Amino acid sequence: MSKGKAIVMSGIRPTGFLHLGNYFGAMRNYVKLQEEYTCFFMVADLHALTTHPDTKELKSNVHRVLAENIACGINPDKAALYCQSHVRETSELYLYLNMLAYLGELEKTTTFKDKARLQPDNINAGLLTYPVLQTADIILHRATWVPVGKDQEQHLEMARNFVNRFNHRYGDVFPEPMAYNFGEDLVKVPSLDGTGKMSKSENQLATLYLADTDEMIRKKVMKAKTDSGPTSPNSPKPDYIENIFQLMRLVSSPDTIAQFESAYDECSIRYGDMKKQLAEDMVNFIAPIREKAESIRTNETYLKEIMEKGAEKARESASATMKLVRATMGLEY
Ligand code: TRP
User: Fold this and answer.
1) Taking the CB of residue 329, how many other CB atoms lie within 10 A of it?
2) Does 278 share its domain with 304?
3) Cα–Cα distance between 191 and 220 in angstroms, integer?
4) Which of 56, 83, 265, 303 is most buried, by the most CB atoms less than 10 A from its CB?
5) Residue range 37-59, pLDDT digits in tens
6) What is the whole-number distance in angstroms between the Cα of residue 81 and the centre of ligand 1?
7) What is the spatial distance between Cα 117 and Cα 96, in angstroms, rounded to a whole number?
8) What is the pTM of this model?
9) Is residue 201 part of a domain?
10) Is there a domain that residue 200 lies in?
11) pLDDT, tens digit, for every residue of 1-15?
């Protein structure tokens, strides 16, 4: 990693399976970022404990997320790909930052309120200070760019507040982290039931996962909502039909797309054929990623090696920051 490049940091929670929306919304962009920036991509296993205190499946989830990320093109030789709990400096910085975080602002956080509602019997302090831990993840590397979805913008705003409080109270150490916006590159991946986007938690049959078998992909695509077709030439497309075209644009060849576009305009389109074609193109797109992820996931020696290499890079950057933090805070006796 060369000096002077801007620093990018992001975290991925090891809960749920990656789907096509994650791929086109996040992974594909991470892969581009690693070419231009010094990147830290982290599996947020400590954050997972705030909602999933049972650790029985944590190891296999961490392995799966790592494998899926590598299969999508994250290159562990370019980016630092590591596990949050392997960088102990995170916990130290989290502790210092907690003294700069006020109860009032933490209680007001949207994600806290949502999660507290979902788990009324486990409103733990970790859940409350989730944004503080996230801030520690980011500023431990003095990162300026954080590629995240819209749902994380409030956490980033809080991170900027904590950074400013630290810098004012003790001295300038941290740059303000900003959400990295992909603009044009942020493609929407519609769900197969014609409502909203593909997502981890909503209708699983309307979401294509990178771990889905060929049969499962075909089954889901063939179930996508259609109708009896347009009745007059060049009609506008209903949303659920536009969604199928949108999915095609992600994985099918320009010729295939043009062919179905003109069939639609001429009212000769057969949605059964279109979905069959889309299903095959999806299978051809997803199967190699699934197979690659599977072979990485089951190679524990390789995964350990990757995690150790990533953690080493992360710790190197973290320990430099923490030296500066302790000195600036006056904690050197
Ligand atoms: N909170 C993020 C999410 O739910 C995950 C995360 C943890 C993260 N630490 C981070 C994201 C640091 C960006 C930077 O998706």
Assistant:
1) 14
2) no
3) 10
4) 83
5) 999 999 999 999 999 999 999 99
6) 14
7) 28
8) 0.91
9) no
10) no
11) 445 799 999 999 998
